């Protein structure tokens, strides 16, 4: 049920074809939980609408469909317009009327938000000139391929640059939404939303993404597939031979590609990924060094400590004490 009065935070959503449902749902649920007392979901303090030139449902990348609330008309009805992207091949297929709406919003000074590959859409529409922008580490290489000469931010969860706000997607969209709730409604409402969603605390924009180290970025398709596999299996890392088998290439070929692309062996790259994940857990959780070692594929705490000291010059406990 719609509440009375004017909401303090009004958000319009443009969903790209095959958008990422997690990013959209996380953003909306922060708004929903901040909008009313308890979990009643009335749009009192916040309001939100899904906008589309077509009345047809918009399909997410997972197949779930979202019914639009209406067409994109007057951007001034919103405090923010959020573009939720998804699969890379959907970037070029935003409806021309939706693009015109975004350009009209920018001309009127309505802040634009890019979520997941929504940042790509804003760049493609010519709406990010002179702005810093955040992309996921996973799409960093895709961004460099599509926008030569531009350097995105891929080592923090979201970026606020004047009237452009961009985030890496996933759960980071909840933290960006909480940032807006804090700004327009108050910190108590933001904390409430995140707590109900079982998120410990609000993360600041500069919080690092828990993905690959940036020095491991590569345009080599084989290396990129291998890095993704390493990231997904960091808790139980396969041998280089098994990794190569899974990629259907020979071990020597995989090693040659890594040497050419990164100047590292596959084993060295895998170790860096696991240490990056250990850093993320040390920074964002209270888990013990032994528990983190087990979760990131090290034999025990001593193994993690040795690798950590060799790479970073300090122990995990000391690194945590210094705040990372």
Furnish the topology, listing elements before pairings:
Blueprint: E1 9-15, H1 21-34, E2 46-51, E3 58-59, E4 65-66, E5 80-84, H2 96-107, E6 112-115, H3 118-124, H4 140-146, E7 158-161, E8 164-167, H5 172-184, H6 187-196, H7 221-232, H8 240-246, H9 251-262, H10 266-284, H11 289-295, H12 301-312, H13 316-321
Question: Nutshell version of this structure?
Answer:
This protein has helices at residues 21-34, 96-107, 118-124, 140-146, 172-184, 187-196, 221-232, 240-246, 251-262, 266-284, 289-295, 301-312, 316-321; strands at residues 9-15, 46-51, 58-59, 65-66, 80-84, 112-115, 158-161, 164-167. With 324 residues, the chain is α/β, with parallel strands linked by helices. The chain is globular and about 60 Å long.
Verbal overview:
Helix content is 43%, strand content 10%. It is of the alpha/beta class. It has 2 domains: 188 residues, Class I glutamine amidotransferase (GATase) domain (Rossmann fold); 108 residues, Homeodomain-like (Arc Repressor Mutant, subunit A), CATH 1.10.10.60. The strands form 2 sheets. The protein has a 6-stranded mixed β-sheet, sandwiched between helices. A two-stranded antiparallel ribbon has the order 3-4. Helix 1 packs parallel to helix 5. The longest helix is centred in the C-terminal third of the chain and has 19 residues. It is globular. The protein starts with 8 loop residues before the first strand and ends with a helix. The model has no long low-confidence stretch (mean pLDDT 90).
């Amino acid at each position: 049920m719609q509440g009375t009065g004017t909401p303090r935070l009004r958000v319009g959503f443009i969903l790209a074809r095959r958008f990422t449902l997690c990013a959209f749902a996380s953003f909306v649920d922060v708004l929903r939980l901040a909008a009313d007392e308890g979990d009643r979901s009335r749009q009192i303090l916040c309001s939100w609408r899904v906008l589309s030139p077509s009345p047809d449902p918009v399909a997410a990348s997972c197949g779930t469909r979202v019914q639009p609330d209406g067409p994109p008309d007057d951007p001034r009805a919103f405090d923010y317009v959020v573009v939720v992207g998804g699969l890379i091949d959907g970037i070029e297929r935003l409806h021309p009327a939706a693009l015109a709406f975004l350009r009209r919003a920018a001309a009127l000074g309505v802040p634009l938000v890019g979520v997941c590959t929504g940042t790509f859409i804003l760049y493609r529409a010519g709406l990010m000139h002179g702005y810093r922008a955040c992309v996921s580490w996973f799409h960093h290489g895709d961004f460099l391929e599509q926008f030569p000469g531009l350097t995105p931010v891929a080592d923090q969860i979201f970026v606020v640059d004047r009237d452009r706000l961009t985030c890496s997607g996933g759960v980071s969209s909840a933290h960006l939404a909480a940032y807006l709730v804090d700004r327009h409604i108050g910190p108590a409402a933001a904390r409430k939303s995140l707590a109900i969603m079982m998120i410990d605390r609000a993360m600041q924009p500069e919080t690092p993404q828990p993905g690959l180290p940036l020095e491991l970025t590569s345009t080599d398709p084989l290396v990129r597939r291998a890095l993704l596999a390493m990231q997904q299996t960091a808790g139980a890392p396969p041998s280089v031979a098994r990794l190569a088998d899974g990629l259907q290439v020979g071990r020597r070929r995989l090693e040659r590609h890594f040497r050419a692309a990164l100047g590292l062996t596959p084993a060295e790259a895998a170790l860096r990924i696991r240490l990056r994940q250990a850093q993320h857990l040390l920074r964002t959780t209270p888990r013990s060094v032994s528990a983190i070692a087990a979760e990131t594929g090290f034999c025990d705490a001593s193994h993690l400590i040795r690798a950590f000291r060799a790479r970073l010059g300090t122990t995990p406990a000391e690194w945590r004490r210094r705040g990372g």
